[in-house]
Amino acid sequence: MRIGVVGMDKVRDIEVSEIKGFSDLLNAYIDSGGFMARYVGLAYRIWKEMLTRRDEITIFMSFPAAIVSTGLRGILKEIFRRRWIDIAITTCGTLDHDIARSYRDYYKGEFNMDDRELRDREIHRLGNILIPFDNYGGIIEKTMREILNGIYHSGNRSVSSYELAWEIGRHLDNDDSILTWAYRNRVKVIIPGIYDGAVGYQIWVFQQFHRDFQIDLYKDEKTLSDTVYESSKTGAIVLGGGISKHHLIWWNQFRGGLDYAIQITTAVEYDGSLSGARLSEAISWNKVGKDSPHVSIWGDVTIILPIIVSALIEDGY
Length: 317
Fold this sequence. Notes:
Layout (H helix, E strand, L loop, with lengths): L21 H11 L2 H18 L4 E6 L9 H10 L5 E3 L2 H12 L3 E2 L6 H6 L2 E4 L2 E4 L4 H17 L4 E2 L1 H12 L5 H8 L2 E3 L7 H12 L4 E2 L1 H14 L2 E7 L2 H11 L7 E6 L13 H5 L10 E5 L2 H14 L3
């Protein structure tokens, strides 16, 4: 029996001879119908539409800190440098790694290395990234002492997490730094769990001697509230999950949900986790609009994001 359904698009083979760049590849992914590849192509198209309508869309991004320890930091830096986003929501480790890598190097390792031996050699392992002790904690402590003392002695006793991130970026003044480009382009970097990391610990230590100094989380939340209510449309690039993802989609429920959304994750949905939940689930919570273009991709963001960003740069964004 011959099968043919009106309205169905046939699967097309990818013709290597027609692939001249990343954008050609991602457009071919859509036509190939190839499992996750198709959704990577759709994410590229949704993101491209957001950038085409940049003047009318407030774009959010959420991501976990771990990816900042990898070469993906360069891709994130480029997103901030081109101001493709207005607000980033992340975890405290993003501040930690951006500071540390502005002064010292991280190194390539393997997942199956002997962690007891690494500890004896004074090397932290983050997945397959190696971080010598001397390239992390002490650098962050010294830098944050200088920054916090500078803020305090200027007479300022209260800063939001995004204002602190800007102050760190201004202090680093490093073209390779995510936070430096956030400061220069006034991209707000909001860290709901600001105390959960090395920078957060340095804030806590500083506050033991300066009890009148505060991190104003209310100001962060008011910024998010004002932004979602004042935006005519909102879009999101959701990398990974956790508190960063939830904070992003949570606030957008109060305007009827995101108008555009892209998610890249390696988490599964079968344990009910937010990190693995499809964006379609967020529709039932009013966090993504009922008719909003959205796509969920299961895959490693360190592989997928550089391809999409390179394609968009090829397109002139």
